[in-house]
Design a protein that fits this description.
The N and C termini lie far apart (103 Å). The chain has 439 residues and is mostly helical. The protein has a two-stranded antiparallel sheet with strand order 1-2. Helix 3 runs antiparallel to helix 12 and helix 7 packs antiparallel against helix 8. It is built from 17 helices and two strands. The C terminus is likely disordered.
């Protein structure tokens, strides 16, 4: 007899795998990548609005009678556009809140500004020491490109130094790590070449650069093979780790600058869009109330439903602008989410160095009990088990001594505590002499 439940379970698993594969293909497609990352936000807004209008027109062409009846009810339309008008006005308050948050971080005293400038100069000085140049570039793209070249050079130096390692496994792991670093550093530098800050190209260079995995793997190799590596290889590995940490700091700093710039652009664009939309919706409500919109046919459609669909598309423009910016910020955050040497995303590489906890949580208590049962007394009896006489309640001389000693220790501790309390009270009162003088 067949198992229909098992067969249906396999079918469900197969369907789930197919849907996951389809989702990954759609997510990595060029149109989705353009909407999420590459496209300019005004262009993405126009494309999304055009898609909404085309969707409404398609529905009208498929069911022209139903759409005409739906979009000629003036009471329903007035309620709908009144709600959209309230939302467009609310957008202004949202913009004011966003702008106040951004400005609150910029309005500081002179000491804070001086500390920021000093920190920036010190950061650039460290970059100059790492890259061995007279002065670091002032443009963020060129600055990151110099750091990437330093990583590339130090990875090559580590690869040459690791050739003298006697452990073949250590050499293979270092070669795999340095090959990965060299390839990713070169690809990121090519993306940064000629990029201008404020554009997405500067930030996109760090989207696929997995410095967290590189830093984590380098530290694990150093900790595992530190005794087997010579001083030259250890120094090269440490320099690579320091430069990766420096790159991580720079990338996160420039990412925060990009976010602040995007928030400022979002605020200004929302204001530019909201005011015309509020005026247009107000005119539309008056026109619907008085019935001055002319009615004529445009192909298979009537002018009134077509005008209402266009008005609805214009009315949601502020929300589409907000969506276009927030979607990219969220996508960039998920792509660049990192926490130093911790891998907060599923790692792409798990074949080089990765330490795992060999004891499962279910076996923790068993392992702890085994640790307590280790024979440390030297008489063959486990340290954690009492002797037979002790278990019977008779006790032994050693046990009595331990009880007496523990009682004596408790008495000594009580006496010390009492003495300490009295000394504390004397000190708080200024001592006996202080009390006599006060009297």
């Amino acid at each position: 007899m067949t198992d229909p439940l098992g067969l249906s379970g396999r079918r469900v698993a197969t369907a789930a795998d197919w849907l996951n594969a389809l989702y990954r293909r759609v997510k990595s497609s060029r149109p989705v990548s353009w909407i999420l990352f590459d496209g300019a936000r005004p262009a993405v807004t126009v494309v999304l609005l055009a898609g909404v209008f085309a969707f409404l027109v398609t529905l009208a062409l498929l069911r022209p009678v139903d759409i005409q009846q739906l979009l000629t009810d003036t009471n329903t339309l007035q309620t709908l556009f009144t709600t959209l008008l309230s939302g467009a006005i609310l957008i202004v308050s949202i913009v004011s809140s966003i702008s106040s948050i951004v400005l609150s971080q910029e309005i500081t005293d002179i000491e804070t500004e001086q500390s920021r400038i000093d920190a920036s100069i010190e950061f650039r000085r460290r970059a100059e020491n790492l890259a061995e140049v007279e002065a670091s570039p002032s443009q963020p793209a060129a600055f990151l490109e110099v750091i990437l070249y330093s990583i590339y050079r130090e990875a090559r130096a580590l690869q040459r130094a690791a050739d003298n390692c006697d452990d073949e496994g250590c050499r293979d792991q270092i070669d795999a790590l340095t090959d990965e670093i060299v390839d990713e550093a070169r690809d990121a530098a090519e993306t940064l070449d000629g990029a201008r800050f404020g554009t997405f190209d500067v930030l996109s260079a760090g989207l696929h650069y997995d410095y967290s995995w590189q830093l984590n793997t380098a530290r694990r190799i150093r900790n595992r093979y530190e005794d087997q590596l010579d001083d030259r290889t250890n120094d090269a590995l440490q320099e690579l780790i320091d430069t990766l940490k420096f790159l991580a700091t720079g990338r996160e700093y420039f990412q925060s600058l990009y976010y602040k710039r995007e928030v400022a652009r979002l605020s200004s664009n929302l204001l530019y869009v909201s005011l015309p939309v509020v005026v247009f919706i107000s005119y539309l409500l008056l026109a619907l109330n008085t019935g001055i919109i002319p009615v004529f046919r445009v192909g298979p459609l009537v002018s009134l439903p077509l005008f209402v669909m266009f008005a609805y598309t214009v009315s949601i423009a502020p929300y589409v602008v907000l969506t276009a910016y927030v979607v990219r910020v969220a996508a960039i955050t998920l792509k660049t989410l990192a926490a130093g040497p911790f891998l907060v995303r599923q790692p792409k590489h798990d074949d080089i160095v990765e330490m795992q906890v060999e004891i499962e949580p279910d076996a923790w208590e068993e392992q702890a009990d085994d640790g307590r049962d280790v024979d440390t007394t030297g008489d063959g009896d486990p340290a954690g088990e009492p002797a037979p006489d002790e278990a019977a309640g008779g006790g032994t001389g050693d046990g009595s001594d331990r009880e007496v000693d523990s009682g004596s220790d408790r008495e000594d501790d009580d006496a010390k505590a009492t003495s300490g309390d009295e000394d504390g009270r004397h000190a708080a009162d200024g001592g006996p002499e202080g009390r006599r003088m006060d009297g």
